[in-house]
């Protein structure tokens, strides 16, 4: 059976060898000289060979045996390897290093997360983040397939996802988006039946209307566009109107407007989503806690 070498004993051996004495090594280790001698003796018993020559007087310098000379670089290598692993694990535990994989719906990805991520990685230059943005269904699929640690999305029907934990954070109201020169643009609030008179473009967030009285709109949509860039281009071109959550409305657009949908009043809830039977890595867990803490403030 192979002996188990203790890192502490290896450090004592290296210190005695480098400092040429048991007394100075004991001072370095903050131990008594007899304790260091016992530590070295136990190490020699495990190795089956002496590492230091026998001393005639207490004042004699500690000298390595030929076996000790061969063992010294190996001991240093073991200590260095141990310290590297320990440091890596401590950095991971303190989320200073590692790799986080995160997915989010585009609205939160573009309007909320940049500032949060900038603050989170400020003191962690060795932390890597892979970031994906897509609609809620795609984000949930990435979570299920364990392509990401956790996601930021909506659970349209929570009872359909018993394998997931959902921590709601943000809420935004559904509204109608149309060009500034559209007949609906001057209204302060809109009843869903008013939209029946206009060409409706459905999108990934239109599912939020499924369980409301406005659900007939979905069956009357002439276009379905999943990509936000393409959707905005179609709206700006006057192809039709759509509904979007407030966060998803492109604030930088000068040609589109957002009118709250008064009837029905539909609210989207967005939050952190993760598998309920899988623990997060220390770095991912730290980011999730950071986002939740910021949201509470």
TrEMBL record:
<dbReference type="InterPro" id="IPR036390">
    <property type="entry name" value="WH_DNA-bd_sf"/>
</dbReference>
<dbReference type="InterPro" id="IPR036388">
    <property type="entry name" value="WH-like_DNA-bd_sf"/>
</dbReference>
<protein>
    <submittedName>
        <fullName>LysR substrate-binding domain-containing protein</fullName>
    </submittedName>
</protein>
<dbReference type="Pfam" id="PF03466">
    <property type="entry name" value="LysR_substrate"/>
</dbReference>
<keyword id="KW-0238">DNA-binding</keyword>
<dbReference type="InterPro" id="IPR005119">
    <property type="entry name" value="LysR_subst-bd"/>
</dbReference>
<keyword id="KW-0804">Transcription</keyword>
<keyword id="KW-0805">Transcription regulation</keyword>
<comment type="similarity">
    <text>Belongs to the LysR transcriptional regulatory family.</text>
</comment>
<feature type="domain" description="HTH lysR-type">
    <location>
        <begin position="5"/>
        <end position="65"/>
    </location>
</feature>
<dbReference type="InterPro" id="IPR050950">
    <property type="entry name" value="HTH-type_LysR_regulators"/>
</dbReference>
<dbReference type="InterPro" id="IPR000847">
    <property type="entry name" value="LysR_HTH_N"/>
</dbReference>
<dbReference type="Pfam" id="PF00126">
    <property type="entry name" value="HTH_1"/>
</dbReference>
């Amino acid at each position: 059976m192979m002996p188990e070498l203790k890192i502490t004993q290896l450090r004592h051996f290296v210190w005695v060898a480098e400092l040429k004495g048991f007394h100075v090594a004991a001072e370095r280790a903050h131990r008594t000289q007899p304790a260091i001698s016992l530590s070295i003796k136990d190490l020699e018993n495990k190795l089956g060979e002496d590492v230091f020559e026998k001393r005639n007087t207490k004042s004699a310098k500690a000298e390595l045996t030929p076996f000790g000379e061969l063992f010294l670089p190996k001991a240093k290598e073991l200590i260095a390897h141990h310290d590297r692993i320990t440091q890596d694990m401590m950095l991971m535990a303190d989320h200073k290093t590692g790799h986080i994989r995160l997915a989010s719906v585009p609205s939160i990805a573009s309007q909320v997360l940049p500032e949060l991520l900038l603050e989170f990685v400020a003191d962690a230059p060795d932390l890597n983040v892979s970031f994906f943005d897509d609609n809620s269904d795609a984000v949930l699929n990435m979570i299920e397939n364990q392509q990401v640690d956790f996601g930021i999305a909506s659970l349209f029907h929570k009872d359909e996802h018993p394998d997931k934990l959902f921590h709601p954070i943000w809420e935004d109201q559904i509204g109608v988006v149309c060009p500034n020169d559209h007949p609906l643009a001057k209204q302060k609030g809109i009843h869903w039946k008013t939209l029946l008179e206009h060409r409706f473009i459905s999108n990934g967030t239109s599912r939020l209307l499924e369980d409301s009285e406005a659900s007939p709109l979905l069956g009357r949509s002439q276009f379905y566009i999943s990509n936000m860039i393409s959707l905005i281009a179609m709206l700006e071109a006057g192809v039709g109107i759509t509904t979007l959550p407030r966060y998803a409305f492109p604030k930088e657009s000068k040609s589109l407007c957002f009118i709250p949908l008064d009837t029905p009043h539909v609210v989207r809830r967005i939050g952190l989503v993760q598998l309920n039977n899988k623990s997060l890595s220390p770095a991912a867990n730290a980011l999730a806690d950071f986002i939740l803490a910021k949201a509470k403030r």
